[in-house]
Amino acid sequence: MARLAVRFLPAFHPSPQMTRVGATGNSTTTSLDPQRAGLEGERVTDVKLELRGITKKFGSFTANDHIDVVVESGQVHSLLGENGAGKSTLMNVLFGLYEATEGTILIDDKPVTFNGPGDAMAAGIGMVHQHFMLVPVFTVAENVALGNEDTGAGGVLHLEKTRTRIREISDRYGFGVDPDAIVEDLPVGVQQRVEIIKALVRNARVLILDEPTAVLTPQETDELLNIIGQLRDSGTAVVFISHKLREVKAISDVITVIRRGKVVGKAEPSATAAELATLMVGRSVSLTLDKDAPKLGEETFTVNNLSVLAPSGQLLLDSVSFGISQGEILAVAGVQGNGQTELTEAIMGLVDHASGSIRLDGKELLGRSVKNIINSGVGFVPEDRSTDGVIGTFTVTENLVLNQYDRAPFARGLNMRPAVMLKNALAKITEFDVRTQGPESMAGTLSGGNQQKVVMARELSRPLKLFIASQPTRGVDVGSIEFLHRRIVAERDAGTPVLIVSTELDEVADLADRIAVLYKGKLVGIVPGDTPRDVLGLMMAGASNEEAESTSGNEGKE
């Protein structure tokens, strides 16, 4: 399998001053000076946003199919759908990042055309992307002013108006954001508030939040939902994009469900999670995982004092130690970026600067090659399936044997056996419900969720001594999550030690027999699988198990 490392740099929004809102029909082209409107704090007026018949095609693939949505001021309108349903594509059309193939965007019943994000921002639409668009080494004020700079004679940047506006918004909504703080020094939840401030400074009347809780602790999620409620009460129209039923039910006034690019229904927040899941998937699904208590065997997998250094010398994983018994699932919880990636990659031999000990069945794995580790009976589902899990230019058949193509039954001596490989592919496509035109389709043509099924099918289809899955159901539909969770539990029940890494606390709670929490590369504690979410959330923010339980207990008494 190819191994690539990808790093994403912050993207820059075009300056709203460089673009305009082009209206069609009898309405005139309108413009807005966001610097004047935002920094002087002019009153944000009510707005009606309508998407009418929006269709977006990428070649022969239709991501959005004649979608109609209406969003009103003082309303949280949730777009609920599985990963890959077309929610983010629709919002990227609204924000001017994509041009619609068909359809019309209307603001206050007047058609408008957005030629870029600057047009959308000038029209009062703000967007907080799932991956933050912040420059880490800039201050909060510098990030907020970026693309909308106030300069005086000689091009000197003036930030005092921006600082004042940030303080006003921060005080109004209880953000607690210092305009002069360096962004990279801020917790993830506070960085997200900076993104919201960026939109509000430009007087956003419509605020789009794309999967906003993906990188937050439970406590930060609750704080964000409270902020969204305040924004709604102040008259802002909020579009909340999510696949998380719990959050959608908690914050929504209106719920529109999108499935495979189409609106399939609307629901009230009072609808049950099962009813919403049925709309999302198109059939009844079970949202609870029934599993028996683990039957623990010998502790055959151990990690002792494992540390990982970045090439720069930064300590990414700090003396982590734990063990997993046969027939046990240990789930690792934590906000993304706290050492989870380095932990799994160190176990698989994918990092260069690791020290300590990793032993499976008494044999040291640290320092061995990836192929040697895989051949030792380790199954691995990486967090980035497109880079590390599948080879897009290989067929589904080939991807299903990537780590076994040179071994029986798929090879005899130096010769591969295509007929056996094809038979295996047909069986796994059926068993794991891989949606593909056929086994000879290129893996790169599959949706992300179906690529994930290919990876899971490959890794769970051979005898294992250890199974590791990082974000095992990311991008997979609700119905398939049910199936994959049962397969993971079945692997546990067969006596395999299982290590799960997931940012989805519901998934951690469903699967885990024990939960290990990582924070800034350190193991802050290992707790039972039924530990309350609020305790886990405090541990994810750095509190020890004892501190989290004490704090949680005191809060409950107040």
From TrEMBL:
Domain ABC transporter: where?
49-285, 301-545
* SMART domains, per database record: AAA
Q: Which CDD domains match?
A: ABC_Carb_Monos_I, ABC_Carb_Monos_II
GO terms, molecular function: ATP binding; ATP hydrolysis activity
Keywords in alphabetical order, please.
ATP-binding, Cell membrane, Membrane, Nucleotide-binding, Repeat, Translocase, Transport
Pfam hit, one: ABC_tran
What do the Gene Ontology cellular component annotations say?
A: plasma membrane
Topology relative to the membrane, per the entry?
Answer: Peripheral membrane protein
Q: Where in the cell is it found?
A: Cell membrane
PANTHER family per UniProt: CARBOHYDRATE TRANSPORT ATP-BINDING PROTEIN MG119-RELATED, GUANOSINE IMPORT ATP-BINDING PROTEIN NUPO
This chain belongs to the protein called Sugar ABC transporter ATP-binding protein
